[in-house]
Amino acid sequence: MTDHSESRCDNCIIRELNALKALKKEELKQISDSKVSRSIKKGEAIFKEGEKLNGVFCVRNGVSKLSKLSENGKDQIVKIASKGEVMGQRSLIAEEASNLSAVALNDMQVCFIPKENFTESLSKNPEFIQALLINMARELKLADDVIVNMAQKTVNQRLAGILLYLDTHFGTDADGFLNLVLSRNDIADVVGTATELCIRSLAKFKKNGLIETVGKRIKIIDKASLTQVSDGLL
Length: 234
Fold this sequence. Notes:
Elements: E1 2-3, H1 25-34, E2 36-40, E3 45-47, E4 55-61, E5 64-69, E6 75-81, E7 86-87, H2 89-94, E8 101-104, E9 108-114, H3 115-124, H4 126-152, H5 155-170, H6 184-191, H7 195-207, E10 211-214, E11 217-220, H8 223-230
Antiparallel strand pairs: 1-2, 2-9, 3-8, 4-7, 4-9, 5-6, 5-8, 10-11
């Protein structure tokens, strides 16, 4: 990871997408003076499960996968973090080792904010505490939804839901393919199934005219039917 010069936090529009928007100008200045900007290459780990974090990471550009290693040695991707998200805050506040790993899915730019600057704002700014609590409550809701989906939905339902999620949150390119290109293994890890089964399900979607694939790239052809599959209606 390479340090590089970035704009100041108080001028960064990314902070409007997360709890940092609740910080006062002088607090943003302190964070800006202490933060370290880093370029991270696709496939590099930002932090690893079990690592003691000495700060948090704010995503300026790019996408990472947050995953947990299961007992059988397989990664379960629990979240895809993109621009504006702050990673590592739960572990830092709880003073625990990270229970997740974060790995870049494409080239990224992140800002590392040291622990002392982050926690100092927590002790002085009630609005910042409230913003963090709201964010963490949303994270808990997302975790609840993942658990329910894993328990109650079929692989085809979960796969359809993931494709629709990628379309909604990351959009498509000029040719209509999903902007965020994931490996079949990563898709399987998000869905919570074996890679071979994920590949068979994608082939079934393609055969039924729901999607088109070119290499790793995926294009949604019939969004209405894919939605019905996700909802268990097809």
